[in-house]
Design a protein that fits this description.
Chain A: Its EC number is 1.18.1.6. The complex is a heterodimer of chains A (485) and B (162). In chain A, 36% of the residues lie in helices and 19% in strands. In chain A, α2 crosses α4, α2 runs parallel beside α15 and α6 crosses α7. Classes of the chains: A alpha/beta (485), B alpha+beta (162).
């Protein structure tokens, strides 16, 4: 470009934030945003930023060598359509103004402060990697797992590879009645013929093939009208081959009467549970149920008080549950202890009571009760240039679409700040260049998106060989090996 | 449902999967260029649909009989944020559209599968449908479909905590 053209471009820079000339200027002049975390929150935020301003460059940092977060490691293997969002994320990653840097641990390899110095804005979208604990004695016994870890195990999350859940007892008890609890129940009880056609990991498949688990109880503190799961997932349980529902009719007292006041979604869900619990099915279904070798059921009005150990083997032998009654009704109903307890024999306890975000940097304003970064519409409080999206922003509930809207919202706040000058993007920032230098000095080698695509191709072809959509690589070492090949 | 889905996969039956997306990416530019073209016999096959976007603007687009309303949004590159996240596989509620009572009735019965996902849509009404499940016929010529606000699936709990 001739000197004259540069000057002209320079003038355009200052008169119009959206000038297309800006994308042809040297790196120093475009607004640079860094996103920490490459799950749905990270990618949807990136997508919206790139769309809203022609000059923004976005770098996404991810701790693992592979992107997509819970879409890869959380969504159940038998829900492949939910993972279609990966296609739109891939399109975003392949945009020239978007770069992916995997294998970079923000907080360890590079600090949030260093990122804030290198970029005009930093968006924290690293989700929730911790668990809410039950806080009961025996929680650390062998045989007790957080749902997040069990799900991570069957989905190939490297840190959960050594879980080795013991599937040798007849009954498994799941605490919590959200969709994650139902995913766990469904994976424990699904016929192997179905699971083996999914991207569930090979070790999980082998363990489930040997599983002795025949009965799964899904336990909640409150009643049927308060369940956090949704109708599609309950219907999947009802229709699960070779499994029959076993519920306690008394748990549904008063529920039929409450139906008429419920909004349609809650009404349909409750009707389905009511029907499954109380209605005598037709002959064919009765036959199917009597022949089923597996059973599942909701258990209501029960809270865990202790995991009971088998003294000889110091592992789980049962769970003690407190019996509750409900005070109030609807969403605000509260579980109140009655003083009664009930012991259930079981060898596997899965606690599915919620994920939890962790503060990766002590300087972040963090609400430890809600486990979120304190923010207003995605703008981190008392921290100019720092934003958050996804579960870190609102708490660990909601599906991909929820996170999508939440991320669009944060992107809108950020773009507004850039447009109005609240965020000064006229100052030149080095962006990935300075971060790359820091990482190199520290011996950290990022994985690019095309490196990930090599991993992707290996997984796809290994999967094809065994009739699965993909065969996931299970260790960071293997992923890096393929990435560098 | 997981089992039905698995069965479909085994039978290689694709329920609105994304081959059209690849086509859309490569031919979107062509389609954009062609949007104003109305002459010729080919357009006699087309069905016009009017979308009202989230800003209240009317966007008119055409599709072929058999196309779903989601197909039109994708093929015509209509700019509705986050529309059709799961690519028409009944795994989300982001292609939520609202119709008048009259049009809704003419769209026919809703399957349990669609209803289950529709139940999660923000701003659900009695005349709501998922766009990926509505296929064009000549009788739907000129219908109006409103794209509602898309804040939050109801699977997000009210107080933001789990």
């Amino acid at each position: 470009m001739s000197g004259h053209k540069m000057l002209f471009s320079g003038l355009k820079l200052w008169t119009s934030g959206r000038s297309r000339w800006m994308s042809r200027l040297p790196d120093g002049c475009s607004p640079k945003v860094c996103i920490v975390g490459s799950g749905p929150a990270g990618f949807y935020t990136a997508q919206q930023l790139i769309k809203a301003r022609q000059d923004v460059e976005v770098d996404i940092y991810e701790r693992l060598p592979v992107p997509f977060g819970l879409v890869r490691f959380g969504v159940a293997p038998d829900h492949p359509e939910v993972k279609n969002v990966i296609n739109t994320f891939t399109q975003t990653a392949r945009q020239s103004r978007c770069s992916f840097y995997g294998n970079v641990d923000v907080g360890t390899d590079v600090s949030v402060e260093e990122l804030r110095q290198a970029y005009h804005a930093v968006v924290l979208s690293y989700g929730a990697e911790g668990n809410r604990t039950m806080g009961v004695p025996g929680e650390d016994l062998a045989g007790v797992h957080a749902a997040k870890d069990f799900v991570g195990w069957y989905n190939g999350l490297p840190s959960c590879r050594q879980l080795r859940p013991d599937l040798s007892s007849e009954t498994a008890v799941i605490l919590g009645q959200g969709n994650v609890a139902l995913d766990v129940a469904r994976v424990l009880l699904s016929p192997l013929d179905i699971l083996k056609m999914t991207d569930i990991t090979q070790p999980a498949l082998e363990a489930l093939a040997e599983s002795q688990v025949r009965r799964v109880l899904i336990v909640g503190r409150r009643g049927p009208v308060q369940v956090a799961c949704t109708v599609k997932e309950v219907r999947e349980m009802v229709n699960l081959p070779n499994a029959r529902p076993e519920m306690v009719g008394a748990d549904f007292e008063g529920v039929a009467e409450a139906l008429k006041d419920l909004p349609r979604p809650r009404k349909r869900l409750t009707e389905l549970m009511l029907k499954t619990a109380l209605e005598v099915p037709g002959e064919k279904e009765q036959q199917r149920r009597s022949e089923a070798s597996h059973a599942w059921g909701f258990r209501f009005f029960r809270s865990p008080v202790e995991i009971l150990a088998d003294p000889e083997r110091s592992r789980t032998a049962g769970i003690r549950l407190a019996v509750n009654r409900l005070e109030g009704s609807g969403e605000g109903a509260r579980a109140v202890l009655t003083g009664e307890v009930e012991d259930v024999t079981c060898g596997l306890v899965i606690s599915s009571i919620g994920y939890k975000s962790l503060p990766i940097d002590p300087s972040l304003p963090f609400d430890s009760r809600k486990a979120i970064v304190l923010n207003n519409m995605g703008r981190v409080q008392r921290a100019a240039g720092l934003y958050c999206s996804g579960w870190l922003k609102t708490g660990p509930t909601g599906v991909i679409a929820t996170t999508m809207n939440n991320s669009f919202d944060t992107a809108r706040s950020l773009v507004e700040d850039m447009d109005l000058g609240t965020l000064d993007v006229s100052v030149v920032k080095p962006g990935s260049q300075s971060v790359a230098a820091l990482l190199e000095k520290r011996g950290v080698k990022p994985v690019t998106f095309s490196d990930w695509e090599k991993i992707d191709r290996v997984e796809l072809s290994r999967g094809e060989a065994v009739g699965k959509p993909r065969e996931k690589l299970l260790t960071v070492e293997e992923m890096l090996q393929v990435a560098r090949s | 449902m997981a089992f039905v889905t698995a069965l479909r996969r085994v039978a290689h039956v694709s329920l609105r999967e994304y081959p059209w997306r690849t086509a859309a990416v490569t031919s979107a530019a062509w389609l954009t260029g062609q949007r104003g073209f109305t002459g010729g016999t080919r357009s006699d096959n087309k069905v016009t649909v009017n979308f009202i976007n989230r800003d209240g603007e009317k966007i008119t687009a055409k599709g072929s009989p058999g196309d779903s309303l989601l197909d039109i949004v994708i093929n015509e590159d209509l700019d509705f944020d986050g529309f059709g996240a799961c690519e028409g596989t009944l795994a989300c509620s982001t292609c939520h559209l609202i119709f008048t009572e009259e049009v809704y009735k003419s769209l026919g019965p809703v399957t349990d599968e669609e209803m289950d996902m529709l139940d999660l849509a923000y701003g659900l009404t009695d005349t709501s449908r998922l766009g990926c499940q509505i296929c064009l016929t000549k009788s739907l010529e000129g219908i109006v479909a409103k794209v509602p606000e898309s804040v939050a699936d109801i699977r997000q709990s009210q107080d933001g905590s789990s």
